[in-house]
């Protein structure tokens, strides 16, 4: 992908620290401008550009703004392994101060606490109401948001669920995807970072995943039941729209 095609991130108001992970120019997915590329809705992932203008939402997701509005509110952290069994509740301010740091290459997923997915929709409604979601839905589905903040090197190892969209507000998120019938080889308690370091470089070409790095101004659509793992390259703020 050409980064010049992406809307610029508002780094001057963010104050979320960069992560320093090396970028990747690999994109094994179709990239569409504006259109949903309907032929992909049930068949394969697609990167969409030019869908919405979430400039206002980005301002509200700056570090200072989120801590001012939500710093004392409780967020639920999940372990960053495939099944995310353990949950821990802490104030957002404490999460940012004490947990939001680069992922250790030796840490297990069960040892990594990560704010994603478990959102109190009542407490976060004032923020979510400012988000402009992708203007597409699948028949007989409704949308549900999943909001998160994560440090560089963190992510969720391979798992699957229903279809949806994922958008990065700040930072960069690298995705690895396999079709439903092609289950990847992975340990559910190893982090995506360890998989990228230890397993991915040794995969034969025919076992390589689809992959792409999503930046602000881009939306990834993932179809139903596709295996996927994520890796945050920077301190990242992101929101997904699940279609269920």
UniProtKB/TrEMBL annotation:
It comes from Scophthalmus maximus (Turbot). InterPro entries: Cupin_8, JmjC_dom, JMJD6_ArgDemeth/LysHydrox. Residues 122-244 form the JmjC domain. GO terms for molecular function: cis-regulatory region sequence-specific DNA binding. One of its GO terms (cellular component) is nucleus. The lineage of its organism: Eukaryota, Metazoa, Chordata, Craniata, Vertebrata. This is JmjC domain-containing protein.
């Amino acid at each position: 992908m050409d980064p010049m095609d992406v809307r610029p991130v508002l780094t001057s108001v963010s104050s979320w620290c960069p992560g320093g992970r090396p970028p990747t120019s690999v994109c094994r997915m179709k990239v569409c401008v504006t259109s949903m590329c309907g032929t992909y809705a049930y068949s394969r992932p697609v990167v969409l550009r030019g869908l919405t203008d979430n400039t206002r939402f980005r301002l509200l997701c700056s570090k200072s703004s989120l801590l001012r509005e939500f710093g004392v509110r409780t967020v639920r952290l999940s372990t960053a392994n495939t099944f995310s069994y353990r949950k821990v509740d802490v104030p957002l301010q404490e999460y940012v101060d004490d947990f939001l740091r680069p992922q250790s290459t030796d840490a297990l997923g069960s040892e990594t606490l990560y704010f994603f997915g478990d959102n109190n929709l009542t407490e976060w409604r004032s923020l979510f109401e400012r988000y402009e979601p992708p203007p597409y839905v699948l028949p007989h589905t409704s949308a549900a948001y999943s909001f998160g903040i994560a440090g560089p090197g963190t992510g969720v190892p391979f798992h699957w669920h229903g279809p949806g969209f994922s958008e990065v507000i700040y930072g960069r998120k690298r995705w690895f995807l396999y079709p439903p019938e092609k289950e990847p080889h992975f340990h559910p308690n190893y982090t995506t970072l360890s998989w990228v370091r230890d397993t991915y470089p040794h995969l034969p070409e025919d076992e390589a995943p689809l992959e792409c790095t999503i930046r602000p101004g881009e939306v990834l659509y993932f179809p139903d039941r596709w295996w996927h793992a994520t890796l945050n390259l920077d301190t990242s703020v992101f929101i997904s729209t699940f279609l269920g």
